[in-house]
Amino acid sequence: MTTGALLFAYNNNTIDYVSMAKWTAKNIHRHLDIPVALVTDVMPTLHEFDKVILVQSTSENTRYFSDYAEHVVWHNTNRSNAYELSPWDQTLVLDVDYVVAGNSLHTVLNDSHNFLAHRWAYDITGINDFSGLNYFGNYNMPMWWATVMMFKRDKTTQMIFDTMNMIRDNWPHYRNLYANPRYTYRNDHALSIALNIIDGHTLRHPGILWKLASLTPEHNLTEIAQDQYRVDFVTPDKKSRRITIKNQDFHAMGKKQLGEIIVNAH
Amino acid sequence: MSTLIERGYLIPAIDTDDVDYLSCAVQLAQSIRQWHPDANISVMTVKRCNDPVFNNVIPLPYGDLGGFANDWQCFAASPYRQTIKLEADMIAASPVDHWWTLFEHRDVVISQGCRTFYNEPATSRGYRKTFDTNNLPDVYNAITYWRLSHTAKEFFGLVRKIFDNWTQYRTLLKFSDEHPTTDVVYAVAAQLIGPEHVTLPTGLGPTIVHMKRNIQSTHSDNWPQELVWENTNPGLRINTVAQWGFFHYHNKDWKYNEQR
Fold this sequence. Notes:
The structure holds two protein chains of two kinds. By secondary structure, chain A is of the alpha/beta class.
């Protein structure tokens, strides 16, 4: 059985996702020792990838990024094609802004389940309550995060991705059904709805055993050594604080700061 | 009433000016029968009722004392050695008979806590100020089990005493209501008797899905107009999510068998 990671990276005028993917691929090689395939629309030069899969993005959304203070074009709609695009029997799909700084994902790869994602995320600093992010829609539908998805090929897994595609292709209907005020299609929402459907509407799909450590854009992220990061933040009572995270994977939700770290790393 | 049968469900259904609880009880009994056709189900009511969904229609042993104050009569009225008392304005959205196995080692079990329709523990405490302020157990009388036992007799004796002497008991509580509610009375009785004798550890026993507005994040208590609900016959889905256990619909006008 082949095991590998799958990254999606479509550059736009603001964010260099392919550079992020290169950096993430290096981290994956170092810590997880598995090959990395990239799905993109332009063949990168001098890349770190074991395979490059060229696919034109079928559509584009726009999304407001608070760290750039602007609406940015966002190609996110073919993530649900991961099942058919992946060259691996067991695939670890990661967002390119997921920082692999340790080998904790080995536990996910060795898990007996055929599909896993995070049910819960939390703010590393403890400042932000993520209840608004761990749920979606007007009635707080529980959300599974598509940031990290592990899947093995089988019928159920294929149905999950087929259902995500159905949801994507009929987004206005599902958006209405789940009372989701968000107009833009989002993979996390499609994944959550798909898991609900596939598991008989019971919301009992198993998740990754730990919560997704996350860093929101308003906190300041810097790299102080390889796999060691410093986060400066301000508490609600206006006190400056900092924490150091070492060998801890996390989701860097602020693309701008991560981009600067990657530029300096090259 | 003499004991007839080992296990059964008892539904108190005493109508008020606003609510036809007997109709609610019929709806509940029908939903239980969808899952358990042979279940023993009795209704305690002051009205005439010939609905075959009930095995027994039981009058109030001490007559109608008004509103919630009739609750303690369930103990004397039950024809079962082991009883699960259910509030009338609920439906069984899934099989529930496995609970007998959980309950049968205890004398009394009152359910604790409630759930959202996503089957997650409710976190809203807006309706539970009296409980939190007075450190009372978070009990919901909607599902109450007892077996004929000294503990059950003592518990329902206390419930009666608290209802009958509410003006004195309420002086013990902060933020108490002028008129006693069954949940608060059960909580005070549980506290006096020892919560460990009448409840299961939190998270172990059954809990109701409670459709009050602040628990479900709906804009109003008229959730049937706001949420998508489907009678899956048997079963119920709310905004596509399959419900399980007892579903406390709260909105008494909602008719499970009248899909809009």
